[in-house]
Structures are given as structure tokens and as C-alpha cells.
Design brief:
Isopropylmalate Dehydrogenase, globular, binds 3-isopropylmalic acid, homodimer
Amino acid sequence: ARIVTLPGDGVGPEVTAAAVAVLDAVAEHFGHEFSYEEHLIGGCAIDATGEPLPAASLEACKSADAVLLGAVGGPKWSDPHAPVRPEQGLLALRAALGVYANLRPLQVHPALAALSPLKNEKLKHVDVLFVRELTGGAYFGAKTRTTDTATDECKYTVAEVERVTRRAFELARGRRHKVTSVDKANVLETSRLWRSTVQRVAADYPDVKLEHQLVDSMAMLLLTQPSHYDVVVTENLFGDILTDEAAALAGSLGLLPSASLGEGKAGLYEPIHGSAPDIAGKGVANPVGAILSAAMLLRHSLGLEHEAVAIEAAVADVLERGPHTRDIGGQAGTDAVRDAVLVAFE
Amino acid sequence: ARIVTLPGDGVGPEVTAAAVAVLDAVAEHFGHEFSYEEHLIGGCAIDATGEPLPAASLEACKSADAVLLGAVGGPKWSDPHAPVRPEQGLLALRAALGVYANLRPLQVHPALAALSPLKNEKLKHVDVLFVRELTGGAYFGAKTRTTDTATDECKYTVAEVERVTRRAFELARGRRHKVTSVDKANVLETSRLWRSTVQRVAADYPDVKLEHQLVDSMAMLLLTQPSHYDVVVTENLFGDILTDEAAALAGSLGLLPSASLGEGKAGLYEPIHGSAPDIAGKGVANPVGAILSAAMLLRHSLGLEHEAVAIEAAVADVLERGPHTRDIGGQAGTDAVRDAVLVAFE
Ligand SMILES: CC(C)[C@H](C(=O)O)[C@@H](O)C(=O)O
Ligand SMILES: CC(C)[C@H](C(=O)O)[C@@H](O)C(=O)O
């Protein structure tokens, strides 16, 4: 299998290297062959080429079996009014790969419950899979700007809503058979289209229970009854906000992976944390989010479920027994955590 | 002073009556005269007149000194595809009154910390005032719908951003001199206009510290460091989501008030809870959110700061010692809580 790596900025290269080491060990252990090709994206790409997603990077990603990304951005490129910005590379890549379904699983490891801002009793049995629409909505709609006025258009077609919704229902079938669709149908036209499309699609999945929730209520319910949710599907911007809110429950952003999937194209895998410029280059970043992203890569792009589960089990073991990086209350560095995971594949 | 009451639907009439009883006691105690005029809004207005905001209601509100609203909506009118819906009345009222600044204070009463999903240590010193832009953005932008496609336009002018921002900075001067502005400037054009306008306005308030935060990060930071925030200002839809998220921290929605203010026009005051159809008519709704909204009415529309503080102190006392309604772990009814607050004004 051909994997493109896009280490990106800040701690991106460190955590990506750790994830690749784990993929290598898995390949060796289970007898697979993975090849890697590294490319530029984000701030480092702007510095080297003037563009946040150089053509060479995009072409490599398009023909790869999967893409493993670190993180993009940093203080050097953080002016939101600059004409060229790191996150444009990420948005362009999502669009070009057509990865419309962003999967963000959330579980709270019992050993780490003390780190969560939420009370322990709320965290029991929390196991949510967010499915965020990733290539539509206000992110990709028309924008205008004059001295006096700015506009953003949020646009959705039935086809866009239908494909991501079907993905959510399919995923629910492999889980607890429940889908919560989040919108703002009492105010937004796109949300009314969203809701009626989800409702129609649901008829094809009579074995899956569907409920609708307004985004403002959902922001509250994620805190008051997080264990109620199984699969949560929502549009791009609501998903951006709700998944970050939910991520806070896990105790550290450094723990969480994501997968962005399209239709028979290369999947894009990245930890949900950012480039963390304050700790970049120090060897202390938590590699768990990146390593679990590699597990999702094996599952969703390479069909290697057994290998994915093996990585997840190894990570769970390390979270249980240590070593732990600083973000989760330990003293260990990135390499020590990587090595502890690697033990499972010796 | 002329106060228009809009009890609305569900528990709205019950909690509004309790708040009016407190206003009456304050008037008697401090020697003021308040007159009340009751009008229809929401589902009950649709049933009676076919419209969610009848002209008579709107005219009365426009010429009042202040408007006290209960709640709108309920299962009977909950189809988001219906041509006439209760929340349209609320949105039309906000627009017609020009109440562009929605103030939502959040404090967590120590006696109720056990009810919060957040750990106790996170709740210490939480005292946030959200200032949500209320008459612009995607709520009031152009919408289109065909069989296949829907759009919502989010639009902001510099003037719209500037007036709500100035209100936030002014309010920060009476508090801890800190403003956090929330946007999504790395993606949205309206957010870039928002951010540069806030930045410019801030120059007129050198005594107030300003920070910018992206909405996704903010959804997380509200949980990990809630006591960090003083005044938080943001656009309409982000404010809708973040204030509901924050409200979950208080332990019950029934506790929280809001004020919506414009330029020299009647302010609109309402508890942030909804119509709570499941408990409507049972006399068990928590009247605290409505009573604290009445206190905000005295402060912001009638200039009666001393009286507002007296209500807030009386409520704090009842939260400390009981009686408590069911939502906060007690057994008391609406009237018992009202009466306990009234004791302070005998
Ligand atoms: C970097 C930014 C553009 C991005 C987004 O808003 O999608 C990030 O927050 C994410 O969630 O992956
Ligand atoms: C009822 C609804 C239209 C309203 C809103 O979204 O503004 C409510 O959620 C609120 O926050 O007051």
C-alpha cells in the first residue's frame, strides 16, 4: 500500500514519525508492505513554495491509498487576513480528495477520567462517533467582502447531505444502531433540507434509531448526557464546534484521531490536535492521536481491521499503564510512548 | 414604567407570573409604579390569530419601556417545515425592537455545584457575561430553497459588529476589564470583518484587555478553563451554540436569565429555558430564570440598579437555603420558590 505522509508544521513531524514507526512495526509483524512518500503542506509549504498545498503534494495524495497528516499552522502564519494561509492547504486537500465524511471517535479512557473537566459519573460508557460533513457548507460557499460588508454563503445539496448521512447510518450498523442528526432547522434553510433528507434516508435503515437535535441543545446535551450518543452526524461548521467541545471531555486533545473519507478515493487521516507551537521540536508531544489515526487508516483505507484493533489495544494498554506524556499528567516524551506501543508488535 | 408581558407557551405563563409578582413586590417596597399589559406571542398567538407575532403585540412592545417574555414553542407547533412557526414570532420581535445585544450572564451558585456536569474545581470563580449579536448573521440573511439545494447567507456590516462590540467593551468596564471575541476568522469572511472591526474598536478601550478565540477552540476552552472568561462577545449563531453550552455548566437551564438590548428602545427580557412542554401547567417550573430576567429589566431598561441587586440577593439566598424546584434537586413548586423570594420584600 502507498501512503503519503504530510507532516506539516509544529509538532506535526514528531507525531507523524511516531505513527509511521507503528505502521512499520505492524507491517513487519503482520507481513504487509507499506511504502511512504513525504510531502509538504501548510506553513512549511508556504515557506518553501509560496503555496499551502503545492501541486506535487496534491498529485501524490490523489494517487495514494491513504494520506497521513500531522498538523498545519503556527504563529508565523497566523494572520487571518494574510492572502495565503496554512489552513487553506488543508481545506483545498479535503475538497480535492472529496473526503466528505470526517469521522471523529470519542471515548474516554477510564485511567484518564481524572483529566476530564467532566465529572466521572458523566464519563461512564461515553462512546460517540461524530460524522462531520467536511466538503460543503459555509467552508466552501461563496464569500464576498467590501469595506463595509462581508458575506458567507452556506449551501447544501440533497446529494451532499444524503451521502454523508448514508455513511453515518452504515457506521451505526456496526455500533449501537443509533444516529443523532444535528441541525438548526428552526432557523436555517440548509438545516431544513438537511433534516428532511436525513429523514428520507433513515427509511432505508429501519434497524437504526434516528433522532434530531438542534445544535444549541446538542452543545448542552453533550455535557449533560454524553453517554446517550452513538453516531452523531452534522454539517461542517456545527461539526467543527461540537467535535472540539466533545474532545475536551477526553482530557487531552493529544489523544484523539480522525479519518476523512470519500467515495473510493484516498482517505485522509490526522490527529485532531493542532500544531502546538509552544511544544514543537521538544519531543514531548503526545503521539497517541496520530497513532490512533494510523489505526483508522488501516481500518478504513486498507481494510486491515485486525491490525487496526491491535494498535488500539496496544494504545489502550499504554494509556492504562503509562508511560504518559505531559498533557496527560506524565513526564514521558514522544519516543517513550511510541516505544511502549511498539512493544506489542515485537 | 410600562411593561409588556408576553407569557407565550408551555411554562412561559407560570414563570412570567412569578416574575411579575416579584416586580410588584419590588414596586411596593421601593415605591415605584409599574403597569403591565399582556400580549400574545408564539404558538398561542398562532392558535388565536394565525400569526406568531400579531400586530397588536408588536405595537405594544414598541411603545413599552420593557418587554418580559416567558417562552415560545411546543410539540403542537414543532414541525420545522410548517409555514408559520412560534420562533418566527421571537425572531421578528428581536428584529423589530432592534435588540442587537443579547446579554447572558453565567455564574455557578456554589450550593448548586453538585448539579453541574463539570467538576467542582472547574466551577470556582466562573462569572461570564456573554454578549451575543442578536439581529444579524445567518438568522436574518437571505435564504433560498429548490428541490435540490438550500442556501443561507450570513451577512455582517461593520456598523453591526461595531455597536455590539462597543456594548461588550462598555460592559467589561463595569466588570473585570477583559473581552474575548469569538469568531472563525481562519475560514469565514464575516469573521474576518468581525475580527478587524473588534480590533479597531478595542483601541478606544485601552483599559480593557482583548483576546480573540476561534469558535471551535472556544467550545473546548469553556469547559477546560471557564473561570478565565469575563465578557465574551460573538456573532448570532456562535452565540446561540456557546451560550447553551455554557448554560449546561450552571446545573439547570431554569436558573438563567437574559436581556436583549438595542439603542434607546425597549429591552426584551426572557429566561433562557424553553417552553418545557413536559412540565407545563404542573406548577413545578423553576421561576428563577424569569425572576432574574426581571432583575435585568430593572437594571437595563429602568435604571433601577439597587432594586435589581436586591432581587439577585434574594434569589441567591433562596438558592442557598431552598426551597428548590425539581430541576435543581428539590421538591418545591413554582409558587413556593416565588414566595421565598418575596419574603425579602415584605
Ligand atoms: C484548521 C481549520 C480550518 C479546521 C476546520 O475548521 O475544519 C480545524 O479546526 C479542524 O477541525 O480540522
Ligand atoms: C428559539 C430559537 C430561534 C432561539 C435562537 O436560536 O435564537 C433560541 O435558541 C435562543 O437562543 O433564544
